[in-house]
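Researcher: Quick one. four chains, 284 residues in total.
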Amino acid sequence: MNDPLTSLPGYVLRRASAATLAELNQRLAPLDLRHSDIAFLFLIDATPGITQSEVGRLLDIQRANTVAFVARLEARHLIERTRVDGRSQALHLTPDGESLVGKARAIIETHETELLNRVPTEWRPMVLPILLALWNRPASAG
Amino acid sequence: MNDPLTSLPGYVLRRASAATLAELNQRLAPLDLRHSDIAFLFLIDATPGITQSEVGRLLDIQRANTVAFVARLEARHLIERTRVDGRSQALHLTPDGESLVGKARAIIETHETELLNRVPTEWRPMVLPILLALWNRPASAG
DNA sequence: TATTGTTATACTCTATAACTATA
DNA sequence: TATAGTTATAGAGTATAACAATA
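Model:
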């Protein structure tokens, strides 16, 4: 029985994503974090004071769905929010948050290295460019 | 503001997968199908008489979660099931199912071609091997 | 004992509509 | 008028535990 799916890049892209995300979630479980939390925290760490809606746009998370993230991370004292004007709120890591991000960063680096190492050496430089090309995100005015 | 995520293959893998799945679901919407339905139907089409649990194993869908697929596809008269022994049931496409799979196949081909075309010509041969390597699925006893 | 199909259940992620208060 | 944060809600997708019937 030869399945007709593993020759389809789109299908294999999905399976590869699902499998590696499950692995990452397992690696992050000791920190009681999930992959989506990490993306959130990394972004705040890289751009302290970033607003909630900016994070949502960068991560392609609907505005409404960022609320639960912020509430949960704040309840864990990993981030804090400060009103920047009547509408927006700026997000910062707390010391606890910075500490946790440090631990997470080590896990992520191990994870990403392990992923890349699955690819034959000579193809590794193509991995990120190919994935970015497949992503095909609209040019950001970053 | 430069985000720290788009240099991580694992993260870009996830975003590429999510974005292309959303596109595929849009393309399949006229057939009232989702990407997961297509995988299910393609597998039955490729291996008539395949059992429900075999499909689940190949698609990495928990046995419990295949029940809803089979029920829904059968309710739409796209597949039928026949008892093969007291436990297993063999799945086949109905004529309606075969017709729909034909239409879906054309959409998938367009979709997959469009995905590949996002990658510079000289890298295209590496796309599938790289994705399979990242997937890193345990060697299947096919 | 192990497997198949099944029910029930829960959690994550995503998507939309609508509301408020601000700009 | 448009934007930021919020609430409520719904739909996918995924995961686990447990059960009956069968191999």
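Chain A touches chain B through 55 residues (CB under 8 Å).
Researcher: Thanks, that's what I needed.
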